[in-house]
């Protein structure tokens, strides 16, 4: 813009002092552009650096085990035989449990806050949810271990075992003994942790639905339920999916809280009450004491796998959004 | 490792800026978490007496070994000793500082500390999932006077790599062939059964919350928190309780001076009163250190700790080394840790 102004100035022959000032603006513009470009480039460089060092670090593991690394669940530091299947399974299952619990609750809270809540309550509930997001994960971990797990063990797990004990299929999914900690507990703790993300984003996008649309629908005699399912959700689906994906991202990578309550067993059990492990929990547990190159490399390879999983999840979310938009366009 | 080099470089720059030439730098070390409380206590007193502080990061034994190999610290600390050939390869000297014990802890209603006695084979069978209830014949036979319930046994082990696990699995490998062949001994193993919990506090919480649970923690931790420990039958077939005197007994029967690199595993030692799961914790320094003055300061600190730190160690439920072992360690220092001029870096007492 400065450039255009300057050509104009030159042709009209303005005094050199003004020209000088404009020139300094131009340098300022260029510097500013360079700085912001550098900041953007830094992100790419960092990301590239992380990917390269993860790949470099995991080469020994993959060259030793090949693709078996992804398909075996044995994790034996003594004989140096490592397989990532159990942590991969645990990461995915705990995240699914977290979303199954948190998505309906989160969207429910958002609907209540935007459609039904008396204005007096709106702020306190909103602030409470944001506070929930600000609690450090170690606090969730300790609370989960010392408060939630014992409660879960004595009050919830026996009930679940009783209810599902006689149903074929489900009986093995909810098989005891009730330890209190395990994959299900980790999933619940994760659900609490991702709830604020899903809720606050969903609420914000619900707020963007034009009041006139909703009022028109109410005017046609629709119930609140119909307004939400027919107008609010279709209008704001992109944002809702975004919120869920953000929650999923946090659930996949969450480390400390999960480490405390998942039981840290490198095993895949049919029961979701049994102890398991996740990728990030394994790394956090074992990295400091990992002696030997293959052990360390296997843990870094786990990190690379988590990176890939997160990438796939994000890519799927994008794809889903593109498809939904295309469909809505028709 | 490259990253740690950068961190180290940054640290060195910071250190160079932070300390003038007149002021002596703090001693830097990193490693095992198990001896951290006593190192911290010694360091506190030492700082008051000499003005020289100790910057010890308890990042775990594996971390300590990595840090000393990367030369980011003056000394590394490890619960699991390095083998003599590994020491030779890395050019390191290793020596023990204090001794501690590992004790099994249990949670059975109505059972008090020391009510239950186990032996090594039974313990190995429990941790392999071969014995699954508390009223199993093997446990009954060892405890004829205790009314054992039919409660299922829930095994709780460390999930993080740990010197405590190293000591415990080493013991199980010595007493059970099935354990040695199937699981082995290391700071992290593939546990056949049970829950993994993070740290001593995690194991303690897991055992405390689960009826019928059994786990293992460092003796100092069990003693300070009043946990329900068990007695064990030692190698001589005697019933022993986890007590300071019994840990010391295990250490007394070892020929430290003639063991290269002090590579001594104190588990399953002979002696009527020896506690079978005892271990020393170790310090690693370079034989020919780049910074001889820093190593000299570190050795001076440990020398001081051997001379005057016994009571502090005992207060925290660690066992000081026997005097003859300390004398032998000092001989090793004088013989092996040499400066560029070929003279011992630390000659004083």
Automatic annotation (TrEMBL), chain B:
<feature type="signal peptide">
    <location>
        <begin position="1"/>
        <end position="24"/>
    </location>
</feature>
<protein>
    <recommendedName>
        <fullName>Phosphate-binding protein PstS</fullName>
    </recommendedName>
</protein>
<dbReference type="InterPro" id="IPR050962">
    <property type="entry name" value="Phosphate-bind_PstS"/>
</dbReference>
<dbReference type="InterPro" id="IPR005673">
    <property type="entry name" value="ABC_phos-bd_PstS"/>
</dbReference>
<comment type="subunit">
    <text>The complex is composed of two ATP-binding proteins (PstB), two transmembrane proteins (PstC and PstA) and a solute-binding protein (PstS).</text>
</comment>
<dbReference type="Pfam" id="PF12849">
    <property type="entry name" value="PBP_like_2"/>
</dbReference>
<dbReference type="InterPro" id="IPR024370">
    <property type="entry name" value="PBP_domain"/>
</dbReference>
<comment type="similarity">
    <text>Belongs to the PstS family.</text>
</comment>
<keyword id="KW-0732">Signal</keyword>
<comment type="function">
    <text>Part of the ABC transporter complex PstSACB involved in phosphate import.</text>
</comment>
<keyword id="KW-0813">Transport</keyword>
<feature type="domain" description="PBP">
    <location>
        <begin position="23"/>
        <end position="303"/>
    </location>
</feature>
<keyword id="KW-0592">Phosphate transport</keyword>
């Amino acid at each position: 813009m400065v450039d255009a102004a300057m050509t104009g100035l030159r042709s009209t022959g303005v005094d050199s002092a003004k020209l000088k000032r404009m020139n300094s603006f131009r340098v300022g513009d260029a510097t500013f552009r360079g700085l912001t470009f550098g900041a953007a480039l830094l992100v790419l460089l960092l990301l590239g650096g992380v990917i390269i060092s993860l790949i470099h670090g995991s080469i020994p593991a993959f060259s030793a085990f090949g693709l078996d690394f992804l398909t075996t669940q044995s994790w034996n530091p003594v004989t140096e035989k490592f397989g990532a299947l159990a942590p991969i399974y645990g990461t995915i299952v705990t995240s699914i449990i977290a979303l199954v619990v948190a998505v309906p609750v989160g969207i429910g809270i958002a609907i209540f806050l935007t459609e039904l809540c008396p204005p007096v309550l709106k702020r306190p509930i909103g602030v409470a949810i944001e506070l929930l997001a600000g609690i450090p994960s170690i606090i969730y971990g300790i609370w989960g271990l010392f408060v939630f797990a014992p409660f879960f063990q004595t009050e919830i797990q026996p009930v679940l075992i009783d209810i599902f004990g006689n149903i074929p299929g489900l009986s093995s999914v909810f098989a005891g003994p009730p330890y209190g900690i395990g994959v299900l507990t980790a999933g619940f703790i994760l659900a609490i942790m991702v709830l604020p993300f899903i809720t606050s984003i969903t609420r914000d996008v619900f707020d963007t639905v034009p009041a006139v649309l909703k009022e028109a629908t109410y005017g046609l005699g629709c119930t609140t339920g119909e307004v939400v399912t027919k107008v609010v959700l279709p209008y704001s689906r992109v944002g809702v999916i975004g919120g869920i994906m953000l929650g999923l991202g946090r659930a996949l990578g969450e480390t400390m809280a999960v480490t405390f309550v998942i039981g840290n067993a490198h095993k895949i059990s049919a029961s979701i009450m049994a102890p398991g492990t996740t990728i990030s929990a394994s790394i956090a547990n074992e990295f400091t004491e990992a002696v030997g190159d293959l052990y360390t490399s296997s843990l870094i390879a786990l990190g690379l796998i988590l990176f890939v999983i997160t990438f796939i999840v994000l890519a799927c979310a994008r794809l889903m959004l593109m498809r939904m938009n295309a469909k809505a366009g028709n | 490792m490259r990253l740690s080099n950068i961190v180290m470089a940054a640290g060195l720059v910071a250190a160079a800026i932070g300390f003038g030439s007149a002021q002596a730098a703090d001693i830097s070390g990193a490693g095992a978490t198990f001896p951290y409380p006593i190192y911290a206590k010694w360091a506190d007193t030492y700082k008051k007496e000499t003005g020289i502080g100790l910057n010890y990061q308890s990042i775990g034994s594996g971390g300590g070994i990595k840090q000393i190999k990367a030369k980011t610290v003056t000394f590394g600390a490890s619960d699991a000793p390095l083998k003599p050939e590994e020491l030779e390869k890395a050019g390191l000297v290793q020596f023990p500082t204090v001794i501690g014990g590992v004790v099994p802890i249990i949670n059975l209603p109505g059972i008090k500390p020391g009510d239950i006695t186990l032996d090594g084979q039974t313990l190995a069978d429990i941790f392999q999932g071969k014995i699954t209830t508390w009223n199993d014949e093997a446990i009954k036979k060892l405890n004829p006077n205790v009314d054992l319930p039919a409660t299922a046994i829930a095994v709780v082990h460390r999930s993080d790599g740990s010197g405590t696990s190293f000591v415990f699995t080493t013991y199980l490998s010595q007493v059970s062939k099935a354990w040695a062949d199937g699981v082995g001994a290391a700071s992290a193993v593939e546990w056949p059964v049970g829950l993994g919990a993070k740290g001593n506090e995690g194991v303690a919480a897991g055992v405390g919350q689960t009826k019928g649970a059994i786990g293992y923690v460092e003796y100092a931790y069990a003693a300070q928190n009043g946990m329900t420990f068990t007695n064990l039958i030692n190698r001589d077939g005697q019933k022993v309780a986890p007590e300071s005197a019994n840990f010391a007994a295990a250490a007394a029967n070892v020929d430290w001076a003639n063991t290269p690199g002090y590579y001594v595993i104190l588990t399953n030692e002979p002696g009527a009163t020896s506690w079978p799961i005892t271990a020393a914790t170790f310090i690693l320094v370079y034989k020919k250190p780049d910074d001889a003055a820093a190593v000299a300061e570190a050795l001076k600190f440990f020398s001081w700790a051997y001379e005057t730190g016994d009571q502090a160690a005992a207060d925290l439920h660690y066992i000081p080394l026997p005097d003859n072992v300390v004398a032998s360690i000092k001989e090793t220092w004088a013989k092996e840790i040499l400066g560029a001029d070929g003279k011992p870096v630390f000659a004083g007492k």
